[in-house]
Design brief:
Blueprint lengths: L3 E10 L2 E11 L4 E5 L6 H8 L7 E6 L7 E4 L4 H4 L5 H6 L14 H13 L15 H15 L3 E5 L7 H18 L2 E5 L3 H7 L2 E6 L1 E7 H5 L2 H12 L1
Parallel strand pairs: 3-7, 3-8, 5-6, 6-7
Antiparallel strand pairs: 1-2, 1-4, 8-9
Helix pairs in contact: 4-5
């Protein structure tokens, strides 16, 4: 059974339709990329899947194993870059949903945070101030934080938008490694067509409404896929 299933799902933003009639699913271990122009509803859909925005229509079903267990890496905002906390403190905050009413982090949470920082190659900087890190290092810390929250699914919203090409390539390789090693399902919003098509096993193309959902190979065979790819290459 899919981890997430959507049927004719719709969301409104400021009283206006933002996403309409989206039907797709996310199964365990899948790597899906959401693509589309600015304003096509990609981030709105993500917030809906995270149950930040209630749907205005359709059906959204999340398996019980995802309750409190979705790792989320949002678009990096300027305010996040200047958080006056240590790398370990930022990472530990990903454990909050699993702690119930406990007010303090225990040994289990600290061990989990350090293990995920190790996966990201950032454990040696766990005492450093987050705001003193480079953009690529900050994204790795935030991904470690998302892994502390995730059990089965990672949702990434434009994770490389603020990174230089070298840092972006390294980040994509880290996501691919986590996907393979941990069997984690990945849902990534991306404007980067080349890497979306290189790494994503399936493509969800939005333009407020759903234009396509299926395998990357099938998408490349469609007129919509060819046209969007050519436009991305020109940009």
């Amino acid at each position: 059974m899919p981890l997430v299933s959507c049927e004719n799902l719709s969301f409104s933003y400021d009283g206006k339709p933002a996403v309409e009639d989206v039907t797709f699913s996310i199964s365990s271990g899948e790597y899906i990329c959401i693509i589309g122009e600015n304003g096509s509803g990609k981030s709105t859909l993500i917030k809906g899947l995270l149950q930040i925005h209630p749907p205005s229509g359709g059906i959204l079903h999340l398996e019980d194993c995802l309750k409190g267990g979705i790792g989320y890496l949002p678009q990096q905002k300027t305010s996040l870059k200047h958080l006056p906390a240590s790398v370990l403190e930022i990472t530990l905050s990903g454990c909050l949903n699993h702690m119930g009413l406990r007010p303090f982090y225990g040994r289990k949470e600290k061990q989990q945070a350090m293990e995920n920082l190790e996966r990201m190659g950032m454990a040696h900087l766990h005492r450093h101030c987050f705001r003193e890190l480079s953009g690529g290092q900050q994204q790795r810390v935030l991904l470690a934080r998302a892994l502390c929250a995730a059990k089965h699914l990672l949702i990434l919203d434009e994770p490389v938008a603020s990174l230089d090409p070298v840092a972006a390539k390294e980040f994509y390789e880290q996501i691919q490694r986590l996907h393979k090693e941990l069997g984690m399902a990945v849902l990534m919003v991306s404007h980067d067509m080349e890497n979306a098509l290189s790494y994503g096993e399936k493509i969800l193309h939005l333009d407020t409404k759903q234009l396509f959902f299926g395998t990357t190979e099938a998408y490349l065979a469609t007129e919509t896929g060819q046209r969007f790819l050519e436009r991305g290459q020109r940009i």
